[in-house]
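User: I'm preparing a small set of examples for a lab meeting where we compare how different chains pack in three dimensions. I only have the primary sequence for this one, and I'd like the structure in token form so I can line it up with the others. Please keep the answer compact; I'll paste it straight into my notes.
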Amino acid sequence: MSDLSKTIVPRSDQLNADDLITGPRTIRITEVVVKPGQEQPASIFFEGDNDKPYKPGLSMRRVIVRAWGLNHGTFAGRRMTLYRDDTVKFGGVAVGGIRISHMSDIEESITLPLSENRKTRKPFTVRPLAAERGLSGGKPNGEDTRTKLLRIAREKAALGHADLDAWLDKLSAQHRAVVDEIEAELRDRATDADDRPPPEDNDFHGFAPADEEVA
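Assistant: Understood. Below is the structure token output for the 215-residue chain.
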């Protein structure tokens, strides 16, 4: 399949917002290096980073400390989901930046106020990242639980917000955390579906996907 993603990778010594222009990415940390006094004092290396570590800004460092504590020596093996936030400003101009949406090793969502500018703060929430155990590993039908969850989520989103939300309400907290990783994509799909005019009865030959149970 033709893929332009490799042609738009920015040249840099670190992961940046443009690397996530095609969507969020969940990383597994291999090492954290801290060099106090530098403009970007923390470098988070991860599997497949190609020597381009994630260097979180001050706000995201505060999120990490709040969620995982001060001892970065314990972070290896933990995971986080990163996404591009187009609203992040630099010098008063929206240039885009990297935000953390989900983190492993937390029991519940964490919300804390982050500075939007010198005068205002805005609440920011990071959610639990579903444990991999039970959500990976092959099954006889070739589709693991995680893959199945995301497939069904996209099918429901293609029917509109009402169907999507009704299905989401039935999920367990663990399964909901998996689906939340692609929430922005699902909402876009649902909006597109809601904006489409209803088909004429005599022209409609499709069917809505039936509810499926997720192991």
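A couple of notes for your slides: Residues 131-215 form one domain. The longest helix spans residues 145-157.

User: Perfect, thanks.
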